[in-house]
Amino acid sequence: MTTLEAPAGAAVGISDLSLRYGERPVLDGVALDVRPGEIVVIVGASGCGKSTLLRAVAGLLPVHSGALRVGGRPVAGTDADRALVFQDDALLPWLTVARNVELPLALRGVRRSERRERAADWLARVGLAEHAQRLPKELSGGMRQRVQLARTLVAAPGLVLMDEPFGALDAQTRAAMQDLLLEVRTARPATVLFVTHDVDEAVRLGDRVVVLGGSGALGGSGVVDEITIAEPRSGAPQDAARARVLAALTDPTRRGGS
Ligand SMILES: Nc1ncnc2c1ncn2[C@@H]1O[C@H](COP(=O)(O)OP(=O)(O)OP(=O)(O)O)[C@@H](O)[C@H]1O
């Protein structure tokens, strides 16, 4: 079996993690365990360190102290098995949509015919089969995000790190992208760490919502609450989860809610 058929996704293990920019502490004592295939959504006030945490998990920022493991191995630098997705699509403007989607496969040395087949398959899944030969600039923002989702998942990463990926989209396109993400994960399981400011998006997508907040100590911050989202995602349980996320967000000094 090649890594392209990797199963349920990579586990993430974070304990007593501190991250800094130079001398400046951003996160302190972060503890978080993510199961293979789980979607964990990270919310928190602007500047509390959500993107910083994602960057560290991606291997773009060194660990100051504590432990950070993905798939049981300490993170030391970037790895093709950990894909990072931003709000701004990072498509290459001079390549067609199909070639953009093929790119991670090319980087992994997958032969051309298989690349084409897999890219076509993913473009069909995200509803863009007819646009394969167009350039990114000829597509809408929502379509470009769909291309980016296809490009991310085509190489079957064990862990997908998404930093406000749908933040620039209008409400309708955003809801469609959320549906699409949940749908394609059924076809291609991966562990997902997803950062958003939108509480509705958090309780809709997350198996669990993690709230980061300021502790005050040292100016750093850590996990103040973790909310498991129960199925079905509607009615009173959903409202209660939403209320609890909001409460943790508005009381960022609270740590370790029940
Ligand atoms: N490259 C950097 N160098 C120094 N400080 C940084 C750098 N990037 C971010 N910071 C600081 O680290 C803190 C955390 O930033 P980060 O971007 O992780 O927050 P965030 O929770 O993702 O914010 P937002 O919700 O606004 O995107 C902020 O105070 C920010 O100013």
TrEMBL record:
Q: Where is the signal peptide?
A: none
Q: Which residues form the ABC transporter domain?
A: 12-240
Q: Which InterPro entries match?
A: AAA+_ATPase (IPR003593), ABC_transporter-like_ATP-bd (IPR003439), ABC_transporter-like_CS (IPR017871), ABC_transporter_ATP-bind (IPR050166), P-loop_NTPase (IPR027417)
**Gene Ontology molecular function:** ATP binding
Q: Which UniProt keywords apply?
A: ATP-binding, Nucleotide-binding, Transport
PANTHER family from the entry? ALIPHATIC SULFONATES IMPORT ATP-BINDING PROTEIN SSUB, TAURINE IMPORT ATP-BINDING PROTEIN-RELATED
* The protein's name: ABC transporter ATP-binding protein
Q: Look up and give the organism this protein is from.
A: Saccharopolyspora taberi
